[in-house]
Amino acid sequence: MFSFFKKKKPVEAPAPTALPTPAPHLPEAPANNAGGLIGSALVTPIDIPVPGAEPPVREHWVSKLKSGLNKTGASISGVFTGNRIDEVLYEDLESALLMADAGTGATTYLLDEVRRRVKDSGVTHPVAVKNILTEALTQLLKPLERALVIGEFKPTVIMVAGVNGAGKTTSIGKLTRHLANEGASVLLAAADTFRAAAREQLEVWADRNRVEIVSQEGGDPAAVSFDAVSAGKARGKDVVLVDTAGRLPTQLHLMEELRKIKRTIAKAGAGDTAAPPHEVLLVIDGNTGQNAQNQVKAFDEVLQLTGLIVTKLDGTAKGGVLAAIALWSRERQKTAPALRPVPVYFIGVGEKLEDLETFNAREFSQALLA
Amino acid sequence: MFQSLSDRLSGVLDKLTRRGALTESDVSEAMREVRRALLEADVALDVVKDFTEKVKAKAIGQDVVKSVTPGQMVVKIVHDELTAMLGSDAAPIDLIAAPPVAILMVGLQGSGKTTTTAKIAWRLANRDKKKVLMASLDTRRPAAQEQLRVLGEQTNTPTLPIVAGQTPQQIAKRAMEAGRLGGYDVVLLDTAGRVTIDEELMDEVAEVKAGTNPHEVLLVADSLTGQDAVATAKAFDGRLGITGIVLTRADGDGRGGAALSMRAVTGKPIKLLGVGEKWDALEDFHPSRVASRILGMGDVVSLVEKAAQNIDIEKATAIAQKMKKGEFDLDDLAEQLKQMQRIGGMSGMMSMLPGMGKIKSQIADARLDDGILKRQHAIITSMTAKERRAPKILDGKRKRRIAAGSGTRVEEVNKLIKMHRQMADMMKSMGKNKGLMSRMMGGGGAAPSQDEMARMQDELAKMDPKALQQLPADLKDALPRSLQGLGSQGALPKLPGLGSGLPGLGGPRFPGLPGRKK
Ligand SMILES: Nc1nc2c(ncn2[C@@H]2O[C@H](COP(=O)(O)OP(=O)(O)OP(=O)(O)O)[C@@H](O)[C@H]2O)c(=O)[nH]1
Ligand SMILES: Nc1nc2c(ncn2[C@@H]2O[C@H](COP(=O)(O)OP(=O)(O)OP(=O)(O)O)[C@@H](O)[C@H]2O)c(=O)[nH]1
Ligand SMILES: [Mg+2]
Ligand SMILES: [Mg+2]
After folding, report:
1. Residue B485 CB: number of other CB atoms within 10 A?
2. B56 shares its domain with B114
3. What is the pLDDT of residues B421-458, one digit of tens each?
4. CA of A173: which chain B residue's CA is closest?
5. What does the radius of gyration of chain A's CA atoms come to, in whole angstroms?
6. pTM of the model
7. For B355-377, how does the pLDDT look when each residue is reduced to its tens digit (9 = 90+)?
8. Is residue B93 part of a domain?
9. Residues of chain B with C-beta less than 8 angstroms from the C-beta of A289
10. Which candidate in A287, A299, A310, A318 is best for mutational testing of the B interface (most B CBs within 10 A)?
């Protein structure tokens, strides 16, 4: 799959049916990467390896993530200061990965991979091991790297779900900003009708972004979503973002409710080229341990997820659970090829409007092993 | 929470107990698996290392290998270490200070501080009859103060009026003044979420603490947290000197490793568990019970408490009296089935019973679960009043009618009758017993005391699983085929008013407890 972020007048963009792949032409790199990163990532075609070239390192979030690591003394760079590759080194690597929440499965996988590559390449210096591990982790995470693409449908309806307090509402606020930066018109749907002041919270984000919001006094989440999608169509919006109430996968009736919201959204878009929601995102708290995998599994079963957002990576948590998720996705694809990995569209690195970044496997690995 | 850690650990330890003799390498192998189970449950690596080393040292040092039941000894060591790690006694919120007592709530973003603030307020006001004021010092998150205000409205708790433009320090000061002037017993201070490396925000909350002198500083943490739980707990404790931890989202399927880690690195007690989004979804944390539950040894004390809260003691006592006189009829059994369902049915009880982790999945496979209680109930309600009082008159014809009426089969009707007869017999013989079990059965009316229950839990922890296999053979027959053999794995305790064993499951008697002696 391959398409572009299209602005309001998608004149000569390739039609979605025009597959296989149109000639890959890279968009011009923005002059200054620091500002419009999300935007640039959005317009970057996917699945096109840029041979040899390292992606631009975005000091902003990398440094944020690193500062978290360093402050806790959890940085593993010290591991590589010795002058021999020995069992102690491997043990230290194992600890570092486990302490980053990679989990026992992914840790074992990565260490086996590193041992194999060390042997094959014949390197002898610990620093080389660091590069090899970074490379192995990057490769593991690479399938999770994909850009969110909007513009193919009008409006593109994005439904956002996740466990309580993960950062759904905040991420929607930040995402609105980035979409608006790209010139997209956004409508917000306050479909969390349960939590105290959830609507007021989203209203603040709507105000900050100067976008419209659809909400109801004490309404039902499916009804609000229906209204919002209908309004999005009527008002010619590019994107409708639907915020839902937090819920745990153990609350089966609430998981059912999500299914219902999704069905209702599809009804509101009946007659469209593709039934909404076009994207279903799961927001995961970056502090989460091995339960994150369960969350992906459970929400995917109910909603068929299309993307992830991992939040709160500006703190001391490392988000290494993504390695576990990547490994799980891979195993799953082996048995069911149709089930592709759910990509990580964004990571959250703070509470402000601009604290959202696209996910880059290499940067992430580098920061994690910094 | 804890369920899958419990499944994993009891699996590992089961393997050990099945062995006759143990070598050192058996122990090492088991510890490797324990390590893995703990890591997958998000227990922090350092804590895991420390734990397995301690257990290993004790296991190898104490001639466990040569003892008669080496596996049992290792299980006991693991249990003891786990309890030590969690701390042994429950630590309730302490309000013993001059009013208004300030309670400061702190934690990472989205951990559940605001919700927990409202839950604690509701509990203190309703259960402990305290006059409580809540104040939101969160000037950062959009609509945070509004959120607490709404929660205050929902729980009928006064909240400090919102004044725009004030700093958290100013709001805190105003809250304490309002607390003094309004004659409040407790002032709950909800703060904004913060990452621990944000110096400015850590300073801010430290200033709030200095200005309000809180008697409790509670760290609210998500029980789904991974390895970073230790860094977070250490940072908040180091900066603020927390007095306790509240773990939220314990209603999720997290494995609860954060609980073990945070307690281990700070030495501060876990005081409360958040088990849902509503304001009554707050539970006390009982470390020793949790340790037992983690090891699949069951949490009988909690179960008994639950029973005591939900069971109609008067009815139960009346039934117990009848039982002793040998007058236990099918109406009484029907009543018992109803009571069973009230304490959460089979599934609700399963998670708290010893060795039930594995059985639970067996039961789910057999799709028996609570359906069996309902069917048994249906069978009884399809009988005439006379039949219920005197089951002896049930002949083939009557049984066929009852089966048809209840949508079951004659065999099931037979099983139920048999079960009833055995229960009645057993109750009669136990009625003479003046021990704890007989009181628990409703003989004394009131639920057993804390002490008695603690003793019971202890007995249970020490129990040799082999003893559990002494299930009366004929009682076993009364069980549905797919459930036979269950009794060999789990001990079914008697609950107040429920009598011996559980309807629908049958049940072994309680080894090591007075009720067992005939
Ligand atoms: N530091 C940091 N905080 C974040 C980030 N994303 C969200 N938060 C904070 O996390 C808290 C919870 O965020 P919300 O957006 O309300 O979470 P939610 O998933 O909508 O919560 P519910 O609707 O209650 O389930 C807020 O205090 C946010 O400011 C992030 O990337 N970094
Ligand atoms: N399932 C479940 N949800 C909970 C529990 N405690 C809190 N929540 C939910 O978690 C989400 C976040 O709770 P808040 O109380 O807003 O968290 P907070 O720590 O005040 O968040 P910030 O102020 O943004 O840092 C809400 O959706 C709550 O309803 C719990 O024990 N179980
Ligand atoms: Mg929300
Ligand atoms: Mg809050």
Report:
1. 14
2. no
3. 877 776 665 544 443 333 444 333 344 454 555 554 44
4. B142
5. 21
6. 0.75
7. 444 444 544 544 444 567 778 88
8. no
9. 42, 224-227, 229, 254, 257-258
10. A287
